[in-house]
Each structure stands twice: as structure tokens, then as C-alpha cells.
Amino acid sequence: MRFIFMIDHLSTWVGKVFAWAILILTFVVSYEVFMRYVMGAPTTWAYDTSYMLYGTLFMMSGAYALAHNAHVRADVVSRYFPARVQAGLELALYLVFFYPGILALMFYGWDFFALSFRQNEHSSFTPGGPPIWPYKFVIPACAAFLALQGVAEVARCVLCLRQGQWPRRLGDVEEIAIPVNKEAEVKAAQQDSGETRQ
Length: 198
Description:
about 200 residues; 7 helices
């Protein structure tokens, strides 16, 4: 569990660091709107900057979403299965679909980035466009973080197969209503016992 949580913490940290891109993106878009419609002087760099920031934010949050079990799932039927059956299905899906896709993304993404870097590729969408090879580096980087988080998810499946229940996640918390109701029940029981003593 320590190893799994170490990977979860890394994925969470990476997701939180890149989440700040949304503030920069908001500033860039707001500045472009102001310059275009109020000042009548649109920028030449805002379009490239906005799609690079949005793509980076979207891709680098993948491992965070996987660590916190936040991806969209089609578990309409499987959620009713026992935990061991769920774990077996998930393990098979990770091995058959997830890892081949992620490893292909990492391998071909690296080639995509390396070619762009060697050519010092610049954006063709705007005059004097910025270099886009740093943006293309995000592709193999996000795949590497997803592959690492996938190790933690596979380990969770193996633990569930052994123990018969899913291991904890970083974000697992007890419902707030449960402790509040328990506290109210304890107070009511104490009041009842106090009244009977009197």
C-alpha cells in the first residue's frame, strides 16, 4: 500500500501543478478578448498559447483522474459483481487495452516529439508562431505518468483478488452523514440513560 500511495501522491502532485494552467489560460483568453474587442488590436500569440495550455492541462490531468478514480466508466453491470470479479475484469482490461494503448502513445509520442524537436518545429497557425516541440513533449510525458499510475491500479486489482475487497484510495473518505448520525445517536442514548437515572 505504501508503494501504491507513493504513486498516487505523485500523480496527484502532477495534476495539481498542471491545474494552475487553467488560471494562465483564463488570463490569456481574457486578455485576447480585451485586446480584440476593446482595443481593436488582437494579439498574434493568444491562439497558439490557449490551445497549448488547454491540451497540456487536459493531458497532464489524466494520471490524477486515474489515481482518484474519476474517469468515466461504463460499469452499469460490473458494479453489481463481487469485488473479486470486478478486480479480475479490471485487471484483464488494463492488460489487454490500457497498457497496449498507453505504451503505443508513449513510444509514438516520443517519436512525434523527437522529430518536432530536430526540426525546431514552429506553429503555422499564426505569423511568427511559437515552437511547438515543447507542447509535443507533453504527449510521451502524460503517457509515462499514466503508465506509472496504471502500475498502482494493477496492484490494487491484485490486492483485491487476494483480499476480496478493494484497497483504500487517497481520496476515500467516510460519508459526513454517517459520523453525524452516529454522534446524534450517542447523544440521544446518553440523554436517555441520564433521564432513567433521575
